[in-house]
Design brief:
alpha+beta; 49% helix; 3 strands; 4 helices
Length: 104
Amino acid sequence: FMQDAQEILDMLFKVQSERLEWEPDDPQIPFMIGAWARMCKIIGPAFVDYLPYVIHPLIQAASMKPEIAIVDSVEAEQNFSEDDGWEFITLADQQKFGIKTAGL
């Protein structure tokens, strides 16, 4: 499997290295983080060699400030879409707390 893993890791590194900085709402961020995490679990201690390539983007993603909103139910339906990455929970009295999860 290590031959296949090496090919996958090379592809991940290529995609990641093509960008110096990621936009906070780039939809690739959670997929890249998830892919690196899965590869880390699979290859275990051999992943240490890839840490220098993963740490900076991981820290950058962790430091992004999420967009949040507290709105009433009507405003939530009219102005915020799940397609845009917004998720809401109901607080009380028709108020909703929303967070834009795209990029988190």
